[in-house]
Amino acid sequence: MAYGGAVTFQITGSNLPTGARGYFYGTKNGVTDLSGNGDSQPAPGSANYGNGTGGQGNYTRYAQIRNAQGTPICTTNTVAVTFLAAPPTPTPVPTPTCSLSGPSYVATGGNWTYVVSGNNLPSGAQGRWYGTKNGTQDAAGAAAGAVPASFTFTNGAGSTGNYVRYMQIVNSGGTLVCTTNSVSTTLQ
To answer: Rounded to two decimals, what is the model's pTM?
Structure first.
């Protein structure tokens, strides 16, 4: 079997007269497509057959060896070759990307929104929050919900501090798909 490219048929023999040529005979998909009328190569020698567009199929080939005057001397064995269409070029799987955006400062009592964006995220993708408050971890995988999405919070009493947040996006099976950038927000 051969994908694209070419196949070389090698004609070998001993005691062949000078000027001997091999005339090819054969079939494609069971129908005669070479009948020794003109497709020939020096014997011994070789012939290349390419697998071009529309050339796919099951081939048999043999050669009749003739002397320089065209008189048959002998016949080679038959070789079977299957030309296959070139394998399809794999479609690249788009790489999922995700990002997080949000404000730098939020006044007491104010609302703020984190926006999780993404491209090529799998169906059913879920977000998990990670981050710190004043340098100490305070979020480690808290479920956020389906993404992409917006998440709005209120700066209530006791919330003041410097927060760093990022999100990991997982598929429906829980496997990590991508991790967003970090956003720093100061609640006053």
So the answer is: 0.55
**Which of 159, 163, 165 shows the shortest CA–CA distance to 128?**
165
Half-sphere exposure of 133 (CA within 13 A, CB side): 10
* Measured CA distances, 46 to 10, 20, 140 (Å): 4, 13, 69
Report the distance separating Cα 47 and Cα 39, nearest Å.
9
- Domain carrying residue 117: 97-187
Instruction: Report the pLDDT value the prediction gives residue 121, as an integer from 0 to 100.
Output: 95
**pLDDT computed for residue 89 by the predictor:** 78
Q: Is residue 92 part of a domain?
A: no
Euclidean distance between CA atoms 153 and 67, whole angstroms: 93
Q: Are residues 13 and 59 in the same domain?
A: yes
The CA-to-CA distance between both ends of the chain, in Å, stands at 72
CA atoms within 13 A on the CB side of 114: 25
Backbone angles phi, psi at 17, to 5 degrees: -70, 155
- Say whether both 58 and 117 belong to one domain: no
CATH for 148: 2.60.40.10
Number of domains in the chain: 2
Residues 77 and 103 in one domain: no
Report residues of the chain scoring pLDDT below 70: 1-5, 38, 50-54, 86
